Amino acid sequence: MDKLELYREKAKNILDEYAQHKYSNGNIDIETIYDLERDHYQIISIGWNQQTRVYNPIMHLDIKNEKIWIQENITEVDIATELIDMGVPKSDIIIGFHTPKMRHLTGFGVE
Question: Which helix (H) or strand (E) holds 59?
């Protein structure tokens, strides 16, 4: 399996695992969205909590230039550590929600 296919599988595996967690209140679904053509991978919450509409990105990963970009993560899960545990080198993980100037301080890839 080439690197790109391997990273696609790892991204889907992480999101599939965390998409199993459900909200305890409200009528809220957790959905995974995979755009395999453009390499975008997301978990969103969508539904209603009483009279309040819920639509939030929970996790968002992209694969660009054979690197996994963590674009969003509102959970307590350390996705970067999980990717490392799955064999992804730190240099191939970009913390996309940090400013480009600060990424070199993360110990992960910078682009």
Answer: strand 52-64
